[in-house]
């Protein structure tokens, strides 16, 4: 670092000469800015840094200000520790109040052998998990709900990523086009991960729980990958039926909130992360979050049943962030 007095001595003109001669090198005491400017780090009153020189044009600086204002508008909740992450997230549906309240439990009839096997697998897994997790045995407390949601969402985030990866490699290996599926599948994977991140705002699992998650992921990732190589049609149908069950589960969760079994989620403020992600109103509560998650699951239900029904080389009918219930 240059001595402070020396750094304060430099006039903007000298700095310009320095920057020109040094080309892209960064001097001690100077910090390169993303927009190509040069920042001199010097203590002036309470501010840590001051912009002395920038190669950014006036119009470009206006753009930057506009960009920053836009980012702040998106992440409107001040205490969200993930604030600013929105620009890295993939497009996803933003639901209206009417949409989240009109989600229904539906079931796509099993028509083919593949459908029947997929539905059978989902029913077996659902019954087994319900027994192990003591679902609906005794009172479904907030802790029980969080355990269930965390466990299920760690699994739910797997298929989209594996399917996207498999199709990506398929495209590379066979020198063929993907027809737009990969993006939708990645959107789904991230959306499921955001369900998990939301639940983790309310509870951090212990060591044993984390061990179970590790084991479950180890098994499910490998099984799903092999299954996707063998039959993508089966896998999307499997996920479609899995999402049917997820809609049932979140519908029951809403019932628990409304009938007084889980009253705390009708008043507990929604995590800021969730408010920012789903663009909920600032005074949203956990019930609003569950409504948004249920709508997401209903959307995944339609997407996966559709992808299972169309040809693997058919164009993806879903555009980025498109809503479909
Ligand atoms: Fe989910
Ligand atoms: Fe889902």
From TrEMBL:
UniProt xrefs under Gene3D superfamilies: Alternative oxidase
Transmembrane segments: 145-166, 207-230
Origin: domain of life: Eukaryota
Keyword vocabulary terms for this entry: Electron transport, Iron, Membrane, Metal-binding, Mitochondrion, Mitochondrion inner membrane, Oxidoreductase, Respiratory chain, Transit peptide, Transmembrane, Transmembrane helix, Transport
Keyword Cell wall biogenesis/degradation: no
GO biological process, one term: alternative respiration
Chief place of localization: mitochondrion
Entry-linked InterPro entries: AOX (IPR002680), AOX_sf (IPR038659)
Subcellular location: Mitochondrion inner membrane
Co-factor requirement: Fe cation
MF terms (GO), sorted A to Z: alternative oxidase activity; metal ion binding
Function statement: Catalyzes cyanide-resistant oxygen consumption. May increase respiration when the cytochrome respiratory pathway is restricted, or in response to low temperatures.
Protein name: Alternative oxidase
Taxonomic classification: Eukaryota, Metazoa, Cnidaria, Anthozoa, Hexacorallia
């Amino acid at each position: 670092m240059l001595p402070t007095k020396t750094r304060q001595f430099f006039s903007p003109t000298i700095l310009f000469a320095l920057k020109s001669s040094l080309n892209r090198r960064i001097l001690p005491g100077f910090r390169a800015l993303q927009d190509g400017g040069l920042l001199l780090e010097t203590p002036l009153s309470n501010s840590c840094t001051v912009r002395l020189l920038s190669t950014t044009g006036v119009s470009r600086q206006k753009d930057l200000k506009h960009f920053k204002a836009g980012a702040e508008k998106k992440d409107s909740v001040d205490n969200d520790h993930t604030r600013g992450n929105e620009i890295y997230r993939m497009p996803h549906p933003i639901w209206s109040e009417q949409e989240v309240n009109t989600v229904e439990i539906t079931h796509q009839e099993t028509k083919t052998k593949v459908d029947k096997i997929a539905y059978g697998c989902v029913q077996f897994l659902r019954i087994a998990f319900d027994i192990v997790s003591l679902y609906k045995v005794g009172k479904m407390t907030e802790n029980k709900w969080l355990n269930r949601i965390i466990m299920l969402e760690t699994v739910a985030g797997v298929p989209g990523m594996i399917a996207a990866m498999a199709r990506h490699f398929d495209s590379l290996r066979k020198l063929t086009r993907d027809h737009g599926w990969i993006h939708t599948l990645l959107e789904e994977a991230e959306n499921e991960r955001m369900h998990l991140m939301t639940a983790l705002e309310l509870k951090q699992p212990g060591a044993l729980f984390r061990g179970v998650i590790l084991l479950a992921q180890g098994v499910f990732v490998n099984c799903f990958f092999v299954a996707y190589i063998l039959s993508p049609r089966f896998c999307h149908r499997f996920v479609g039926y899995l999402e049917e069950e997820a809609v049932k589960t979140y519908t029951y969760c809403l019932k628990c909130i409304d009938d007084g079994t889980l009253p705390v989620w009708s008043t507990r403020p929604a995590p800021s992360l969730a408010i920012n992600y789903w663009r909920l109103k600032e005074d949203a509560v956990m019930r609003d979050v569950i409504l948004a998650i249920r709508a997401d699951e209903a959307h995944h239900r339609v997407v996966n049943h559709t992808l299972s029904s169309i040809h693997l080389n058919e164009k993806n009918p879903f555009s980025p962030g498109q809503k479909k219930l």
